[in-house]
Write a structure and sequence with these properties.
- By secondary structure, the chain is mostly beta strands.
- It folds into two domains: about 25-170, no CATH class; about 175-259, Immunoglobulin-like (Sandwich), CATH 2.60.40.10.
- The chain is about 5% helix and about 50% strand.
- It is built from one helix and 19 strands.
- The protein has one helix at about 1-15, and strands spanning about 25-30, 35-45, 50, 60-65, 70-80, 90-100, 105-115, 120-125, 125-135, 135-145, 155-160, 180-185, 190-195, 205-210, 215-220, 225-230, 240-245, 250, 255-259.
- The strands form five sheets. Strands 14, 15, 17, 18 and 19 form a five-stranded antiparallel β-sheet that branches.
Amino acid sequence: MLSFFILLLGGTLKAQITFESTYNYSGTYTDLSLSGHKFYLMDVASNQCRIYNTNHSLWKTINLNLPANHYLYDIKYVSENLFSTDNSLCLAYTYYSYDEVNQYYTYTTKVVKENGMELLALPGCAYVTVFEAPALGTKLQAYVFNYSLSPYTVQTQIFNLPGNLVSIESIEPGTISHNPSAFPNPAKTFSTISYSLPTNIQSAELQIFDMNGKKIRTLVIDAKANHISLPTMGFPAGIYTYIIKAGNYRSDAGKLIIN
């Protein structure tokens, strides 16, 4: 009997959650088609994407080109053979500037190779997502905004990609987009939250929470649109989180800063 409890205790200890590493920047995993699983992060101050092996040793550093007085906003689709077919490591990154006088943001998204070679430049683009289907191939959807106009304008630009998406970032069939994106962020008077719903879901809820976890706003969204505008003038300044829920489906939480 004693030996049974010893074996049970040993199995329990092996199943414990164990700490691996800490990064002082936001990051996530990706699955590269040739190089395997990697972890990458976004260093806003240095304008860098740093990529690490699964043992947390540094693999590569990619320096990103930003104009003066612009700030790094997002890095997505660190990949091989998605944006090109020559085995190059590529990524999409978004940066922004803020017009203090007229109080609006301007975004730009670029797709580059690791050596800095520019494959695509999208002025006004604050958010991109990749969609893949056997009958259509691989598409890049770019959401382009002009906040200098009132009301602001939005375009959805579609690009055909030469490669395929092999990444942890890809969306599994039947799930909500794992990364609904808010922009501008930080926001003053409003923020637009982009999303995509699975084909079997026609409507869902966008739920907003304060820092205490209290739900303060619920908005209904539907599959006929891919974004919703959230007025923020009545919100106290602070940090908020939001999720998209539909039945048993739930997106990852997003963060929204309101000035």
